[in-house]
Each structure stands twice: as C-alpha cells, then as structure tokens.
Write a structure and sequence with these properties.
InterPro entries: MoaB/Mog-like_dom_sf (IPR036425), MoaB/Mog_dom (IPR001453), MoCF_biosynth_CS (IPR008284), MoeA-like (IPR038987), MoeA_C_domain_IV (IPR005111), MoeA_C_domain_IV_sf (IPR036688), MoeA_linker/N (IPR005110), MoeA_linker/N_sf (IPR036135)
Shape: elongated
Number of strands: 26
Bound molecules: ligand LQZAQKY5, molybdate ion
Strand content: 25-35%
Distance between the termini: 24 Å
Number of domains: 4
CATH class of the largest domain: Alpha Beta
Largest sheet: 6 strands, mixed
GO molecular function: metal ion binding; molybdopterin molybdotransferase activity
Radius of gyration: 30 Å
Number of helices: 7
CATH architecture of the largest domain: 3-Layer(aba) Sandwich
Pathway: Cofactor biosynthesis; molybdopterin biosynthesis
CATH superfamily of the largest domain: MoaB/Mog-like domain
Helix content: 10-25%
Strand order of the largest sheet: 7-4-6-5-9-8
Keywords: Magnesium, Metal-binding, Molybdenum, Molybdenum cofactor biosynthesis, Transferase
Family: Belongs to the MoeA family.
Length: 424
Amino acid sequence: MPQPSEPSDFRPTPKDKPMPLEQARARIVDTMTPIREHERVPLRTALHRVLAEKVVSDIDVPGADNSSMDGYGYAAADMAEDGGALEIVGESMAGHPYTGSLGTGQCIRIMTGAVVPAGVDTVVMQENTHAEGDRLVVAQRPKPGSNIRAAGEDIAAGATVLAAGSYLRPSDIAVLASVGVSEVCVVRRPRVAFFSTGDELRPIDGPIEPGEIYDSNRHGLAALLSELGMEGIDLGVVGDSPEALRAAFEKAAAYDAVVTSGGVSVGAADFVLDVLGEQGSVDFWRVAIKPGKPLAFGMLGNARFFGLPGNPVSTAVTFIQLVRPALVRMAGGHPAAPVRLDLPTLADLRKSPGRENFLRARLVTTDSGRLAVDPIDHQGSGVMRSMSTADCFIVLPAAQNDVPAGEIVTVEPFAQTIWGHPVD
Ligand SMILES: Nc1nc2c(c(=O)[nH]1)N[C@H]1C(S)=C(S)[C@@H](COP(=O)(O)OP(=O)(O)OC[C@H]3O[C@@H](n4cnc5c(N)ncnc54)[C@H](O)[C@@H]3O)O[C@H]1N2
Ligand code: MOO
C-alpha cells in the first residue's frame, strides 16, 4: 500500500508485468483514505454530495393516518353488506382535517392525503358509491382497512433515513425534505488537480497547425470529474519535458488527487513516470487492459496520483475503470460493482489473448424484441467517437480469442450505477 513517500528511484521497464484489472482496481480503491472533513450545506445544494453522518427522522412520515383515495371514510363494522347506507356528517380535506367525531352509522367525505379521523378505519373510493342528499350508499364495499396509509409507514420517527456514506441522488433529496431536513452534513469534495501533457496540444479556442491537435482529454477529464461531483482543478497543458513536469507536479502535490493524461508510455518524450519516481512514488504502472495498458498509479506528496495514457479512449476507459471507483471511495462513498449483462454480439469481435478488452458498443433491440449488443466499427484507442457513440462496453476476458457473431458476451452499460449503497 503506498504511503506518503520519500522520492524513489523507480525506473519502469517494458518487462514490468501488467497487473490484471480486478487486482489493480482493488489495490487502488483499498489505498484510498476517505476524506474526513465535512461541512454543512443547504439541502438545495446537496445533490451528488456524500453524507458525512446519518440522518435520523424526528417525525413520522406520513405524520398521521391518511386517505389514499378520494372517497368516504367510515367504520367497517357499520357496513355489513354491499348497498348499505351511511349518514354523511362532514369532510376531511388535505390540510383541513375533520375535527368532529363519528357516531355509529356515520361517514365523512375524505380526499387523498386528508387525515383519517377517529372512528374511521376504512375508505371507499368515490366511484364505488353514490350520494343521495346527506346519505351515502356504498355500492361495493372495499375490504375493511382499505385505502388508508398508516402514520409512519414510509419513515417512522427515530428511524435512520439515510446512512453516512450515502451519495445523494434526487430521490434522496426529496426524502430528506420529507422529514424536514433543510441542511445536511456532507463530506468535503475531493480536490482533484488535472493536466494534459504533450508538446502537440493546443487550446481549443485557437487555430492548429499541421502536427498539432486540440487538447481534448483535459476537457473530457474535467467533465468526468464534474459528473462525479469532484472539485476539479485545471492545471492546463504541460510540455513534454522533465522540467515542465517537475513544476506541474509540485503544484499538483497540494491536492487530494492528481489525474494526468499522456506521457506514461516508453517513448522518448514520456517523462511522467520518471518525474513521479523522483518527486513521489510509483506503485505500479501497467494494467492488463486494452485500451489503457500504461497507467501510472502512485503518490505525489499526500496526493494519490493517476497518470493516464494519452490516447483519448485509453484516458476515458482507465478513468472509468480505475480512477472513478477510487475517487468515489476518497469522497466517502462506496463504489458499486459494475452492472454486467450477458448478451449476444451482432458482429464478429477481433481479440488476441493477453489483455482484458473494453470494446465500445451499443445496446440494441433485435427484430425479435431481444436485447443484443452491436460493436462500433472503429475500435482504435485514438477514436474518441467510439466512446461518444457507444452506450456500453463489451468486456472480453484476457485469455479470450476472436468471438463470432451470435456468441454471448459480457456487456457493461455506461449508465450503470456508479455509487453503491454504504455497508453498515
Ligand atoms: N513502443 C511502445 N509504444 C507504445 C506502447 C507500448 O507499450 N510500447 N503503448 C501504446 C499504448 S497502449 C498507449 S495507450 C500509448 C500511451 O502513451 P502515452 O500515455 O505516453 O501518451 P502519448 O504518447 O502522450 O499520447 C498518445 C496519443 O494520444 C494523443 N494525446 C495525448 N494527449 C492528448 C490530449 N490531451 N488530447 C487529445 N489527444 C491526446 C497523442 O497525441 C498521441 O496520439 O502509447 C502507445 N505506444
Ligand atoms: O492502452 Mo493503449 O490504450 O491500448 O492504446
């Protein structure tokens, strides 16, 4: 497990064996220290934050027995048979409860959400009745006890509404509002510094010359971080020189995590690993996945360091597979296990044994109404449109060879649950 470290003399060699993905992910996630600092924020701004402490309800929800239908409330004992009649003595509306008490043979008109008064144990929906003046005829009786929502059936006073470590989704915000919570205590968002490396990279708001490219990865990374609820700190583009990298690393070391793109392979201008070795420590640098083999994981000061490969699809795949679960953990949450489906592939898949492959694909419904998966034609790790037009990965195990169309393959949808439930 990497610790805040003294500089090391790590020298990567192509002989370093790539680590299987599962092992790399477990190792990375296990080394994350969840952030302990927390802050109180208004519920209005708490979406996608992580609860630092559990929330216990002070109240029952609903607060009182209430009707789930527009209709009439009465005591079932007063209604021995279908077609029986009762005297209508008042009404209970949502926000305006009935304040009297019911006698034998009496009923009240009651609306959905209105409090059920003493003496009423059953509500009949309006459609199954007809009123004759102040007399109600119940054509068809519901079962005794019907159409009443019990006090506290959603949340009982004293119950834990959400556990510490819960990632707040819109439905959680609504639940917290339902128990009258207007402020929550949430974990400080991880501060994640990120930058691109490469002399060929240009900002997206200017021209490019032959041999130059727009720095797309930095924008992709900013979006991935912001989607995850992280505080991203954009450190720009850093040139392919050890000096430039040293200066950038010094700045980046002050944050909780650092994510970079490019310069982690074995090329003449790939210095990320060298400088990480000098200024921090490298835990491992190769993962047995395609795309995404070169990936530097280590420490820079107290920051967790993720040096992602520069090929745009490799950057995205390694972020999704390795950085995202790590940051979820760092943010005080719990990474969900990937949702995986077994589906037939509509096209042949090319695969040589060695690395686990993440092919980009789309979920489709065939003419027979069955779900299947259709791989994108161009699978190059520089073809970012293969990610942008896809909605899932086909995951082929390391030892797999070519797969003919029609075979069942493992599919990981992109729109999967990212944040799992806390384990208490
Ligand atoms: N001899 C070997 N060469 C390569 C190997 C290998 O094992 N031996 N691995 C290949 C694999 S796999 C990958 S992935 C890449 C990763 O290399 P780097 O992380 O060093 O990335 P770069 O060389 O800096 O760039 C690769 C590619 O991506 C483009 N790029 C870089 N940054 C950005 C950016 N911010 N936005 C858009 N595009 C970017 C860059 O121009 C290159 O085309 O190495 C292989 N080589
Ligand atoms: O890992 Mo590289 O990402 O195969 O292109």
